[in-house]
Amino acid sequence: MHRTLKRILRVLCLETIPDWEKILPQALFALRTVIHDSTGFSPAELVHGKNLRTPVMLLYEKLTEEHVESSVVDYVFQLVMYLPLEVHPSKHQRELEV
User: Fold this and answer.
1) Please, are residues 52 and 32 in contact by the beta-carbon 8 Å criterion?
2) Name one GO molecular function term (predicted).
3) What DSSP designation does 1 have?
4) What is the pLDDT of residues 6-49, one digit of tens each?
5) Which of 4, 15, 67, 85 could staple 61 via S-S, CB 3.0–4.6 A?
6) Distance (Å, rounded) from C-alpha 41 to C-alpha 33?
7) Total-model pTM
8) At a CB cut-off of 8 Å and minimum separation 6, what does 42 contact?
9) Which residues of 58-67 are buried (b: 16+ CB within 10 A; e: fewer)?
């Protein structure tokens, strides 16, 4: 992994900015979003359970307009609606264990 990171930084430093510290976040993001042959998953997917959305994905979503994100208000509303449904079975299970 370190060899790959060095290679990415070397290429980016030659093409753009000579200060590797400034492009380190972009290099790490690139490493974390690439699917590995050995696992079939990206490191980000293994850690977070989903793929990170890259700038290309965001551009594609904007162009196709197929991906519609719900607003924060919708998310909170869904959370408030479904949370009691999730808590209730847990409470019932605890009562059965006692």
Assistant:
1) yes
2) nucleic acid binding
3) -
4) 887 888 777 766 777 888 888 888 888 888 888 889 888 888 88
5) 67
6) 9
7) 0.51
8) 32, 33, 34, 35, 36, 51, 52
9) eeeeeeeeee
The residue with tokens 């290099």 is 27
The pLDDT tens digits for 53-63 are: 887 777 777 66
CA distance 42 to 54: 12
Query: 30 is written with which tokens?
Result: 């690139």
Residue pair 14/7 in contact by the 8 Å Cβ criterion = no
Torsion sign, CA atoms 38, 39, 42, 44: negative
**Locus of tokens 């990171």:** 5
